[in-house]
Amino acid sequence: MGTQAQDVGLSFSYFIPRNGYFSTPISPFSFRGVGVNLTRVIALETGFSLYRMSGMNMLGLPFETKDPLLGPNFTLFVPAELVLEFKGKQAEFDIKGGGFAFYGFDQKLNLGNFDRAIRTYEDWDVANSNLNFDNNPGFGYHVGVEFTVPVTRQFSVALEVNYLVGTAKFPLTGSYTGGTANGLETVSVEYKDGKVDFTGLEFSIGVIFGSGR
Question: The pTM is what?
Fold first, then answer.
């Protein structure tokens, strides 16, 4: 059996990162569910979403915080997934899984949250950080489900939820200065294992345009 092109979909996707701020899509730059049907129940899909990330956290640092250390930025997200399709007369239910790539543009450090995390880590009264970063693309995997209901013969409405787990290398260098009433000191920083934490839930609301067949 040969492959068959799928219907085309336009969606609004929202990402809730772990230990971060709610992130929104940049309309209309979310084009998902593009692919081919390999069989009647198996498909390959891809697409892209451009997010405005309000705040993301980091891994691989000597301290932990539940406050985001990065952002805001723009992030391009590109999934590639295998889809199991269960089609009924009135609706369709899909189970999805695969990998994804992402890249953050116009990256910024949230130095205010960094300073607070450093104060707690060092048990200081004050801290002021001066940090630089090396931005890199990231990769991860995801699993999810999608529920699609036809509205007319030409288009359907789809609701999708995905759980994403990904990281991107994000080493930090620089220094921070701080201390207590007894005096200040400066500490050099070289966090080679720093990573962007791209873990969280993605919700999508989409419209799928069909051929009407």
Answer: 0.90
